[in-house]
Design brief:
The complex is a heterotrimer of chains A (about 300), B (about 100) and C (about 550). Chain A has about 300 residues and is of the alpha/beta class. Helix content of chain A is about 40%, strand content about 10%. Chain A starts with 20 loop residues before the first helix and ends in a 10-residue tail after the last helix. In chain C, α15 links the parallel β16 and β17. Classes of the chains: A alpha/beta (about 300), B alpha+beta (about 100), C alpha/beta (about 550).
Chain lengths: ~300, ~100, ~550
């Protein structure tokens, strides 16, 4: 596949947030190394969307394939956040599950999942929900077989719903400032709990609560990247190198980490309260920090780095 | 969904040897275009799936202008439309042709 | 015996009646209704300050809560019909007649009320016309205005959004009217005196700060390749060609794209210092990269923009600022500047017909005019030359003595051939004509008349209407850039090629522009966050534009 014309071929200049799924994959991997499975020419499209008079995509909104990263073989999946919000449908989910299952046989250095999703596609919800469950199971199997699964999150759809659950099963996560990780989205919370509880139009609040900086500070993500493909590539290589073993010790450490987190921050009313308790000197200045200043802040926060998950 | 297919004869084949390419994303006001070099060198076929019915004459005009300008002989072009405006369609078609010429 | 002091005596009596509810000039927010009922008389002409941005919302709520048995049949004379209360008063009978300029957010409701006869409409004005009539035959008896703070003597600080206030106060205070100001707070000493206290009769400390909507913020993340292509053509085919230094931009994405291309594409073309140096413009956040790159010499503003205050304070060489450091805007002066001191107005519209008349009206909305027709018109009173103005004049001149030739203002419409939801921009007949017929307007609400328009730029190319010599040239020039709309598809292809040969239509390739180069990578900022970076952290965008 000649791939999408990149806004810029230079991974240092190419914005992750702006790039399409295919542009991200091509620019992330070693040049010329990407081999796509079930490419658009195969036309594996959703059988369900036409029933709703909705347009389909030739790849059902996900690119899967093999490539190399610094010479090491990897498997990559990338969701297209602009097609139906990157949501999981039947084909979309099956491509991801298939890729993860193939990892057991192919034994790549890692599986990279480039999340960009609002969760399950409403129009094919049963298949989508099943795909979420199967994906989590397949990730656990891959990790048990010693293959790190790394999530990269910085697209406009964020990583929500089932995508947020799947991210929780990954070995390590990298996130950019624009990236968001959560299960219920801002609108869902507002609809169920009211605007007083969570005003979904207050975008500063949304990012403070679910955005990349918050997730990094509380250790929900393990690396923070500038919004370039090159930064995500460096983060992926780094995280592959320090992925935790998948054993009882790791799981118990993760359980302990989450328990202490809810105990320590459960009564906080706002993310800035959490940051203050984490020891950030001027919590209100965090959203405006550039990457370097933020990295320095993270370096002083003990909880941001851990060997659990 | 409305399905439209236009077949044209071109004066020459599209230069280059890239077998296939894809550009664009199916999103509101956007579209994806899949180009495959699978037809005889003087033939071009453009097949469109669009959720917005009733714009057949506009599609016909956009495709005809593109074929006259790019002479995309040999290409089968498949479009999944998300309600793109004609100028966006023209731009993506030209982007696609450029990818195939590379 | 002729009475020469009737108005003055009447004014004094009103102020006297109002004092009962005040401590000196200061009135608590809870007494607004009592104050208004004491001062207003049935049939009064009232300006309830509703500007493009700033709203006297506390006083608007107060007026709407007055007893219609006491206060009725008011004649409202204000530039903006923006808040629901601005129209509520017509439903209750408090107000009857209306003369205004702009009604963006209330456009649909105002159309229904005009149709239903609840409003007796005088006219829909441009800003300058309405301001002018304040001094001739629409002088307010009472003005209800808004400011940031006031002292107990009534000295008023308007903050960066001065906007219409000085004009309204000038007309009211010096012609026996009563001026009531709402302020966010009463202070010992105001940061600067925008309106001297002897022109203010009462000051109301509002229950909540007045609301300002960010109207001029365009998110670079939403800019499309088509808008970038159009912007490239405008820069190369118009700004560079005519050497446009003094100008006004509309608020659309097309002009915002131009602003973001100046430091990149404009720089590459070697145009820095040669174009776009002096502006009549609201403080558009998208102009920050051009300012920071040294393109812009100075900017005078109609109003301010939410989030730009700190940035403006730190750039006094560029903006007009007061002794306190904050922006001083003034709508009347800036509109005058846009009309007389700018060589070009460039902006978008919703509909253009075959002659080049344009309108932002759709069938069910009366959005009004604001200032676009003032700036988007050729001021025949202009007498100072400039290269751009003279060149346009030469292109448009066909007959007469060359010694008597004068210049032309460039009025450029920057549009995409299709708008939202595939609605065509180019039409055989403007919806405005049908609307005028339906609600009985004497004048069709045309935003910019065909004889003022000099160029139309679309993704298909530039139509230079100055060079057209007859009606057929003009119609085909417009059809020739109308793309795949019905109007565009109806063009005479041979005639369009002839117009292209004569330079009346210029395609991207005629300008040496490759459409595939129209890439978001050309934007000096691709996101609001990039604008914050360009500003050195001084720009503080409102929450709804953030994604961090």
């Amino acid at each position: 596949m000649a791939g999408n014309r990149a806004a810029s071929a230079d991974p240092d200049a190419l914005s992750w947030y702006e790039a399409t799924a295919r542009q991200r994959v091509v620019a992330l991997a070693d040049p010329g190394s990407v081999r796509e499975f079930l490419p658009p020419t195969e036309r594996r499209m959703s059988p369900h969307l036409p029933l709703f008079d909705l347009p389909r995509a030739f790849d059902d909104g996900i690119v899967v394939g093999r490539a190399t990263l610094d010479g090491k073989p990897v498997l990559i999946a990338a969701q297209e956040g602009r097609f139906m919000g990157g949501a999981f449908g039947e084909i979309h989910g099956a491509k991801l599950v298939g890729l993860l299952r193939a990892a057991i046989e192919l034994k790549p250095a890692a599986v990279l999942i480039l999340f960009d999703t609002g969760g399950v596609r409403l129009q094919e919800a049963n298949a989508g929900e099943t795909a979420i469950a199967e994906t989590m199971r397949a990730i656990v199997d891959a990790r048990a077989a010693g293959i790190p699964v790394i999530g990269l999150i910085g697209g406009r759809a964020g990583c929500y719903g089932g995508g947020g659950l799947i991210a929780g099963t990954c070995s390590r996560l990298a996130v950019s400032e624009g990236g968001r990780i959560s299960v219920s989205g801002p609108e869902v919370i507002e609809t169920n709990k009211g605007a007083e509880e969570f005003d979904s139009r207050d975008r500063a609040l949304v990012w403070r609560t679910m955005g990349g900086k918050h997730r990094r500070l509380i250790g929900g993500a393990d690396a923070f990247c500038a919004d370039t493909v090159a930064a995500f590539r460096r983060a992926a290589l780094d995280l592959i190198g320090r992925a935790p073993a998948f054993d009882l010790d790791t799981l118990e450490a993760e359980q302990a980490r989450l328990e202490s987190r809810i105990e320590r921050f459960g009564d906080c009313r706002d993310a800035t309260d959490v940051w203050a308790r984490l020891g950030v000197n001027d919590p209100d200045s965090v959203p405006a920090m550039d990457t370097r200043a933020f990295d320095e802040t993270v370096a002083r926060v003990r909880e941001a780095n851990h060997d659990a998950r | 969904m409305e399905t439209l297919t236009f077949r044209h004869t071109t004066k020459k084949p599209l230069p280059g040897s890239v077998p296939n390419a894809i550009t664009g994303v199916v999103a509101s006001g956007n579209l994806e275009i899949l180009l495959e070099r699978v037809l005889p060198p003087d033939a071009c076929e453009v097949a469109i799936e669009t959720p917005i019915a009733g714009y057949g004459v506009v599609w016909e005009a956009v495709v005809a202008d593109f074929v006259a300008r790019a002479q995309p002989g040999g290409l089968r072009i498949s479009i999944n439309d998300g309600g793109a405006r004609p100028d966006t369609v023209s731009l993506r078609l030209l982007q696609g042709a450029r990818l195939m010429e590379a | 015996m002729t009475e020469w002091r009737g108005e003055r005596n009447d004014r004094d009596a009103r102020v006297q009646a109002g004092r009962v509810h005040a401590d000196g000039k200061v009135v608590p927010a809870g007494s607004v209704v009592d104050l208004l009922e004491a001062i207003l008389r049935p049939g009064d002409r009232v300006c309830l300050e509703g500007d493009n941005q700033k709203q006297a919302d506390c006083l608007a709520r107060g007026l709407a809560a007055c007893d219609p048995a006491k206060i009725h049949d008011l004649h409202m004379v204000q530039s903006g019909i923006v808040l629901p209360e601005h129209l509520d008063v017509f439903e209750t009978g408090i107000a009857k007649r209306l003369d205004y300029s702009y009604s963006g957010p209330q456009g649909a409701r105002i159309a229904r009320m005009l149709y239903g006869g609840q409003i007796q409409l005088g006219a829909v004005h441009t800003y300058l016309e309405l301001f002018a009539r304040y001094f001739v035959d629409l002088t307010p008896n009472v003005a209800l205005i808004a400011g940031v703070s006031a002292d107990r003597d009534g000295n008023l600080y308007t903050g960066p959004n001065t906007e219409d206030t000085p004009t309204v106060v000038e007309a009211t205070a010096f012609k026996n009217g009563v001026v009531i100001a709402q302020v966010n707070q009463i202070v010992e000493k105001v940061p600067r005196v925008d309106i001297p206290g002897d022109r203010i009769d009462f000051v109301v400390e509002a229950d909540t700060p007045f609301y300002v909507e960010p109207l001029f913020t365009r998110d670079p993340a939403a800019m499309t390749e088509t808008q970038i292509l159009i912007a490239m053509m405008a820069i190369k085919g118009i700004y560079a060609e005519y050497g446009i230094r003094r100008l006004n931009h509309g608020i659309g994405f097309g002009t915002a794209a131009i602003e973001l291309l100046l430091p990149t594409y404009g720089e590459k073309l070697g145009l820095k210092g040669k174009i776009a140096t002096h502006w009549a413009l609201n403080p558009h956040p998208t102009l920050i990269p051009a300012i920071e790159s040294g393109w812009v010499k100075q900017i005078h503003c109609f109003g301010s923009e939410v989030g730009m205050d700190r940035y403006i304070r730190e750039r006094p060489d560029i903006f007009f600022t007061g002794a306190d450091g904050s922006l001083r805007s003034n709508r009347a002066f800036c509109q005058t500047a846009g009309l007389y001191a700018c060589d070009m107005f460039i902006g978008a519209t919703l509909q253009i017909d075959l002659m080049g008349h344009s309108s932002t009206i759709t069938q069910s909305r009366v959005a009004g005019f604001g200032g676009a027709p003032n700036m988007g018109s050729d001021p025949h009173g202009r007498r100072h030359p400039s290269d751009a103005w003279m060149k346009a004049g030469r292109e448009g001149q066909i007959v007469g003595d060359p010694a008597l030739m004068r210049g032309r203002k460039l009025v450029v419409q920057l549009v995409e051939t299709f708008g939202e939801k595939l609605v065509p921009t180019f039409v055989e007949k403007l919806d405005a004509l049908e609307l005028a017929r339906k609600i009985g307007l004497e004048l069709a609400p045309v935003m910019i008349y065909a004889d003022d328009v000099t160029h139309i730029v679309t993704e298909e190319g530039i139509a230079n209407l100055l060079l057209c010599r007859d009606a057929d040239d003009r119609e085909q020039a417009i059809r020739g850039v109308a793309g795949y709309t019905e109007v565009g598809r109806g063009r005479d292809r041979a005639k369009v090629e002839e117009l292209r040969a004569r330079g009346i239509i210029r395609r991207p390739e005629d300008l040496g522009i490759e459409p595939l180069d129209a890439d978001r990578a050309l934007l000096a900022a691709k996101s609001i966050k990039d604008l914050v970076h360009w500003s050195g952290g001084l720009y503080e965008p409102p929450a709804k534009f953030r994604n961090w």
